[in-house]
From TrEMBL:
The keyword Coiled coil appears for this protein: yes
Species of provenance: Litoreibacter ascidiaceicola
Keyword Coiled coil: yes
GO molecular function terms noted in the UniProt entry: DNA binding; transposase activity
InterPro entries registered for this protein in UniProt: Homeodomain-like_sf, Transposase_8
The name this protein goes by in its record: Transposase
Example GO biological process: DNA transposition
Keywords: Coiled coil
Coiled coil: 52-79
Length: 91
C-alpha cells in the first residue's frame, strides 16, 4: 500500500488549522489528532508554518534539486578518486 504524502497546500492548511485550534485553547496534542497528524509529523512541518503554498512548493523543488546535485557531485568525486588511484599505478 502506497503512502499518501500531503501536498504543500494541504500542509499549510493543516498547520493553520492547528494554529487556530491552539488559539482557541485546544492542547496541541488534541489539535494534531483532529487533523489526523502525529506529533512527529507536526514537529517536522513546523518549519513551514509562516510560508504560503507557493513558497512551500518552491522550497520542495529546490530541496529536490539540491539533493540531485549533491548526488552528482558525490559521483564525480568518486570517479575522480578512482582515476587518480589508477593513474598513480596503485591498483
Amino acid at each position: 500500500m502506497a503512502i499518501k504524502r500531503p501536498k504543500p497546500e494541504e500542509i499549510v492548511v493543516k498547520l493553520r488549522r492547528v494554529a487556530a485550534l491552539m488559539g482557541q485553547g485546544v492542547p496541541r496534542i488534541d489539535a494534531n489528532r483532529q487533523i489526523s497528524v502525529t506529533e512527529q509529523t507536526y514537529d517536522r512541518w513546523k518549519k513551514y508554518g509562516g510560508m504560503g503554498a507557493e513558497q512551500l512548493k518552491e522550497l520542495k523543488r529546490l530541496q529536490k534539486e539540491n539533493e540531485r546535485l549533491r548526488r552528482a557531485v558525490s559521483d564525480l568525486t568518486l570517479d575522480k578518486l578512482i582515476l587518480k588511484e589508477a593513474a598513480s599505478g596503485n591498483f
